[in-house]
Design brief:
Helix content: 25-40%
Radius of gyration: 17 Å
Oligomer: single chain
Strand order of the largest sheet: 2-1-6
Number of strands: 6
Structural class: alpha+beta
Number of domains: 2
Bound molecules: zinc ion
Length: 123
């Protein structure tokens, strides 16, 4: 469960941005979350609610867009889109096979991070 720590970080980023614009409230936060982070959107929303209680982001809507993972093959150099498997969810092990040549010699190039894309504020 890393959702709570994660929600707190999102709040910090949103708060900093809001301060720059002298905002009194944050009403929405747009987030892009890589699928390979293993973050569960519902849990993240709950955590965000808890993390923002009593702050300028209290009651703010969290909009989450999941982005697929991408791997690059070290053998053929091609890029494949990957989804998290049930097995990976349980073990945390993320080994992906190239969809082009079948090699397991791959590296994750996208999907392991999350970014605050935008926030909506009230001045
Ligand atoms: Zn390949």
């Amino acid at each position: 469960m890393h959702e709570f720590a994660f929600a707190h970080n999102i709040f910090k980023i949103a708060e900093e941005t809001a301060k720059k614009y002298n905002a009194k409230r944050i009403s929405e936060v747009y987030l892009e979350v890589g699928e390979l982070t293993l973050i569960v959107p519902e849990l993240l929303k709950q955590s965000f609610k808890m993390a923002t209680t009593g702050t300028i982001a209290e009651g703010a809507k969290l909009r989450i867009e999941m982005t697929p993972g991408k791997i690059k093959c070290n053998k053929c150099g091609k890029i494949s889109t990957v989804s998290i498997t049930e097995e990976a969810k349980l073990t945390g092990l993320q080994l992906f096979q190239c969809k082009h040549c079948g090699s397991k010699d791959t590296e994750i190039i996208e999907g392991k991070s999350a970014n605050v894309k935008n926030i909506k504020i009230q001045e």
